[in-house]
Structures are given as structure tokens and as C-alpha cells.
Amino acid sequence: MKFTKPPRNLVEKSKSYSYINPIIGIIYWSKLKDVFNYLKKKRWGQILEIGCGFGFLLPSLCQIGSRVIGCDIESAFDVCQKTTLREFEKRYANLELKKVDARSLSNYIDENSCDVIVAISVLEHIDDYNRAIMEIRKCLKPNGLFVCVLPSENWLYKLGRKLVGYKGDYHKHYNYEKMQRSLRRNFKEVEKWHSPFGIPLFVTGVYAKKM
């Protein structure tokens, strides 16, 4: 199985600079591909992607999950549904889409129901991320996996943001080290790698639910 990049017209329809720009796109597509390549080693039951955005990872997840749920907060979901999500939902019978805030995840997703939960560049945008992490833990099955991609926020990352023209305080509630401590309190770390191509701009962690 290979990573399924969505049709070009859908990517362009999103008008997402991160995925359309030929240089920046290399970084962002690599995050999705790395997560898929890690998970494709087996067939999963239920996979949930929180903060799915335009849903560019969802077609690949539908290859390896019997049931795939993509969710995001209402403001993001409404925009993305009109541009890309509705089209993905038509194409994949095992895909379900939901408006969900990660801080109240268990109100919408059954507890102990997910084999895998994926969050790519999501937690750093949530002010009460500790609450979101606990909700994620609730919804994972025993020994289920949480795959989380976070910005390193190191000097290289900050320099890269400036070079490509990003301005302002992007993640005002986020501290990488504090986030790591919160994740380790709730999960057992299984694996970790840097991206893209081993460059420490983003850090992907795979965590197992503690019993």
C-alpha cells in the first residue's frame, strides 16, 4: 500500500499554502506520509484523526482501517467540508466525518473504541491540551496507539518560519517540553522520529495507552 495523495484539484481547491507551495509542501506532505507508512504495517479496526482539517490523510487511512473517523472543531470543519471533506466522504464508504472538539472527545466518540488516534499539528493549537490528551486516552482501546506530530519550536523551526514568511506568535499556549511531560504522564512512548528527512522541525511520537 502507498500513501494516497488527494487529486490535485482538491488540493488546489483548499488554497492551503502549506500543501500547495512546492517547497513548504515537501515538509507537510512528508508528515502525512511518515504517519501512514508507520501505520500501514497492519490492518486496523477504528482509526480516528482529530483536527483532520482538509482531510488529506484520510484517503490513505481508509486503506488500512475498517472504519475511519475524521473530525475537527466546528469553525474548521464547516470550511473544509465545503472544499474537500464532502468529496472524500462520497469516495470512501468506510469514512465518517464529525464536528468534534478534542477537549470533549468522549462526548462524541465511544470510550475504549479506537485502535489508533492521529493528531498531526493539532495539540499545539489547543489551550487546554491536557484535557484533550486525557480525552484521547479515554477513547483509545487498551494498548491502542496515539500518533502525534508536534512542532519542535527549536531555533531551526523558528528560523524556518521566518524564512518562509510566517509572522506572529503562532502557538501562544504551547511549550514542547511541557507537552512531552503531559503525554508521558498519560501514555507509554513507543517510538519517535524527526521530520522532514530527519531534520528536527517536527517531532512525531507514537504512544501506547497505559494499562
Write a short abstract of this structure.
39% of the residues lie in helices and 27% in strands. It is of the alpha/beta class and 211 residues long.
CATH architecture: 3-Layer(aba) Sandwich
Shape: globular
Structural class: alpha/beta
**What is the CATH third-level topology name?**
Rossmann fold
Number of helices: 8
Radius of gyration: 16 Å
What's the name of the CATH homologous superfamily?
A: Vaccinia Virus protein VP39
N- to C-terminal distance:
31 Å
CATH class assignment: Alpha Beta
Report the biggest beta sheet as strand number plus sense, adding barrel if it closes. 7 strands, mixed
Number of strands: 7
State which percent range the strand residues make up: 25-35%
Percent of residues in helices comes to: 25-40%
Summed up, the domain count is 1
User: Could you list the spans in which at least 5 consecutive residues all have pLDDT below 50?
Assistant: none
Strand arrangement, major sheet: 3-2-1-4-5-7-6
In N-to-C order, the SSE pattern is HHHEHEHEEHEHHEE
The average pLDDT value, as a whole number, equals: 93
Index terms:
211 residues, alpha/beta, Rossmann fold, 7 strands, 39% helix, 27% strand
Describe it.
This protein has eight helices and seven strands, in the order αααβαβαββαβααββ. It is of the alpha/beta class and 211 residues long. It has a single domain, classed as 3-Layer(aba) Sandwich (Rossmann fold). The chain has a seven-stranded mixed beta sheet, sandwiched between helices. Helix 6 (129-139) packs parallel to helix 8 (176-186). The chain starts with 7 loop residues before the first helix and ends with a strand. 37% of the residues are buried. The model has no long low-confidence stretch (mean pLDDT 93).
